[in-house]
Amino acid sequence: MKNLNFLKTLLILGLFAIFSCNEKSSDFNNRKVSFNSDWSFHLNDSLVDKDTIGTSTKWRTLDVPHDWSIEGKFDEKSPAGYGGGSLSGGLGWYKKTFKVAAEDSTKITSITFDGVYRNSEVWVNGHYLGKRPNGYIGFQYEITPYLNYGDKSNEIIVKVDNSKQPNSRWYSGSGIFRNVWIETTDKLHVGQWGTYITTPKVTAEKASVNIETTIQNQYTENKKAVITTTIFKEDKKITSVTQDITINANGNQTLKQSADVENPILWSDEKPELYTAVTEISLDDKIIDRYKTTFGIRDFKFDLNKGFILNGKQVKIKGVCMHHDLGSLGSAINTRAIERQLEILKEMGVNGIRTSHNPPAPELLQLCDKMGFIVMDEAFDMWKQNKTKYDYANDWDKWHKQDLIDQLLRDRNHASIFMWSIGNEIPEQWNETGTEIAKELAAITRQYDKTRPITAGMNPPVNMNIDAVTLQFEKKNVSINPLAGSGVLDLIGYNYAHQTFEHHLKNFPNTPFIATETTSGLQTRGYYDAVSDTIKKWPVSWDKKFVGGNPGNTVSAYDQVQTPWGSTHEATWKVIKKHDFLAGMYVWTGFDYIGEPTPYEWPSVSSYFGIVDLAGFPKDVYYMYQSEWTDKTVLHIFPHWNWKAGQTVDVWAYYNKADEVELFVNGKSVGKRSKKGDDLHVMWRIPFETGTLKAISRKDGKVVLEKEIKTAGNPSQLKLTADRSTIKADKNDLSFVTVDILDANGTIAPNANNEINFSLKGNGKIVGVCSGDPVSHESYKGNKHTALAGKCLVIVQSGDKSGRLELTASANGLKQSTIVITTE
Fold first, then answer.
1. Nearest CA to 177 among 89, 52, 56, 46?
2. Between the CA of residue 99 and those of 62, 155, 487, what are the distances in Å?
3. What is the chain's alpha carbon radius of gyration, rounded to the nearest angstrom?
4. Checking DSSP bridges between strand 374-378 and strand 352-355, what pairing results, if any?
5. Is 628 annotated as catalytic?
6. Start and end of every Glycosyl hydrolases family 2 sugar binding domain (predicted)?
7. Which residues are registered as beta bridge partners of 560?
8. Positions in the chain whose pLDDT score sits under 70
């Protein structure tokens, strides 16, 4: 960094006063306030810039979290490649001016970044604070010695270098893409991530709660203090424990306290009940620090024969893997956007999330705590050996220990986390180097948390020839993956290899099972091949370029296309549901994500793996899972009913709680179908005729549900539907508005792909547009977008004033539509 002093003369872009114990501005900790607003940003986009900034640097004002890559154009020649979403990285700068109240000059001030992708370097008032290469883990710097107090301003500068590409196998995003906080404390305070709460004994009558608290004393003299930890259930005080301590000057001390909770209300995936521990430090009868920790009380184990046991009840983990991007919002984190994803998944019956393949945003874990998800918290996608040229393997030796420790300290109080994953498909898993690294990582993990098992996503745990797997097992000629056989792991994590699942107890008689990653089925929402009962493996091999496919890089939305290493959705679930000892699975993936557009390459730029598309619209297989994973009564028929006269069409039905489904075309029955054996759907092959397709499910001869699909006429009008018509006026809240293209009678036009234009009146802005089309190169940040299969999404973000937002959608030849969203 060169010549930072001249930057002090630049225009002050924003003022920010820091106040201690500002609970209204905090997240889970009343010492923290948001530091997201009024940053200046500059993207180095020429050789003239090189890696510096100067007096002529052009800045624009924005709020973080921010992802600059999502603002760019898709480019076939992007160094990130199609795996990285064909979007560019680069080198960016952020700066912010702020003031600190004079009365805080006797306190400790720190800045916390929840995640910056990647290679961040930070300066405050010209003083260099440090560098963190890993984009996914949070970090904190104390800035007290470098601050000006009172009327004099301060300046923070952040350099973010994501210029060396490729450094990821999927879309990473670029910039300060997670939240930033300022934390102000007394010199005697609970340290960062300073509590550790465990519940070693849990019964219906009583739970023991152990609390370890790390206290930091930054005074120059010893301090005698009183530490009180109070446990609350919502606003009700449950119990409290108090202890006197003496802490040496400039020292740390870990205090151990314990308490009992009578008749505890246990956390589960169905009823995610939470408690709060409030730790207060008092000096001379005055509370000088208050630190809140949310936790859950639950008892669990992974059993060799019974799978996952939660609070004494056998629970099948019905999970999905999730990447960190939020569709058209890119990697810039937004709590409501994550919540919407989880709501859609919960409606499907999902009860588990794998944070593939990195530490997630803290907000995801907070929401999983509140909403009831069984989380596999994953640390690394690679160790010392690279998967892409410039990835984290280059930083491994220097940083992996610190990054893993920080993840464990940050995340270990979350009720939703039930296992740690130390790696995904690590190349070193096949040799002794991998075993030694795994031993080191497992030792670190157990040092900081002994309450959860350790796993890794291995591909696969058993060396096998998939085409001859049955023969191999019959001859007992099966070799074990060195990492799987090392004894390091508490759970054997299977990535794919579903053919071997039923043999797990033979191969690993002492270690329970978890399917860390499964399936890799492929679909484009709304597109259907003519024949649905043939299974296609695209590509033919993971290491061979895909040749062939469908027009427009589409994939049939029938559950009939899989990768060669995976399976259809039905195939793996049939195995998992059959055996008690199979604890559960994490399907690849819950949502489509940007990048890795298997089986295609350019011009495809996003994935086909999701059960839900990039816009958040469910694909048809969503309802197979819903019929299997929930108690909801389900009847879902597809495809659409707009075809050529006489064309043969395969009609599928997913259903439950019924003996049979009868299908009608224009009132005439074309037959009844019932699931046989382990079937998960039924099918009719019938000629198309314009009109109405109707399905009726029956149980014991009585109607359970009826569903209709009608042939649509020409597209005529637009319909807007908001997921929430009232949102908060906080500059962060979002309303996700679905746009349906309808015919004159209100029937969705399933083949419509009109370009839709959007305009917004009021104190808010359009922050994302998307149709879920993996081949679309339209900007996610524009005011127009082309629909896919009659649907499109527009995302509206609130401003900071209460009022009305009027969103209008229009398209050539269609009747426009307006919807009102209230902000308050």
1. 89
2. 18, 9, 54
3. 28
4. parallel
5. no
6. 89-182
7. none
8. 1-30, 46-49, 464-478
252 vs 275: CA distance, rounded Å = 27
**In which element (H, E) is residue 561 found?**
strand 561-562
Which H helix or E strand runs over 817? strand 814-823
Sign of the alpha-carbon dihedral angle for 412, 417, 419, 421: negative
Tokens representing 605 are: 């730029």
Residue tagged active-site, from 183, 280, 363, 425: 425
User: Is 0.90 topped by the overall pTM?
Assistant: yes
Question: Looking at residue 464, what is its pLDDT?
Answer: 63
Place of tokens 């210029």: 163
**pLDDT value of residue 46:** 62
Q: What was the pLDDT predicted at 50? A: 72
Residue 750 CB: number of other CB atoms within 10 A? Answer: 20
SS3 106: helix
pLDDT score, position 470: 47
Cis peptide before 539 (omega within 30 of 0): yes
The token duo for 686 is 């019938």
Which residues in 359-450 belong to E strands, given as ranges? 374-378, 417-424
Which residue of the set 155, 280, 517, 662 is catalytic? 517
> Position of tokens 């075809």?
643
Q: What is the CA angle 355-375-85, rounded to 5?
A: 15
3-state helix, strand and coil shares in percent for the chain, rounded to the nearest 5: 15, 40, 45
Pairing of strands 702-710, 668-673: unpaired
- Kindly state the helix (H) or strand (E) to which residue 60 belongs, with its residue range: strand 60-62
Give residue 479's pLDDT. 83
- Let me know if 517 is a catalytic residue: yes
Check: CB of residue 410 under 8 Å from CB of residue 362: yes
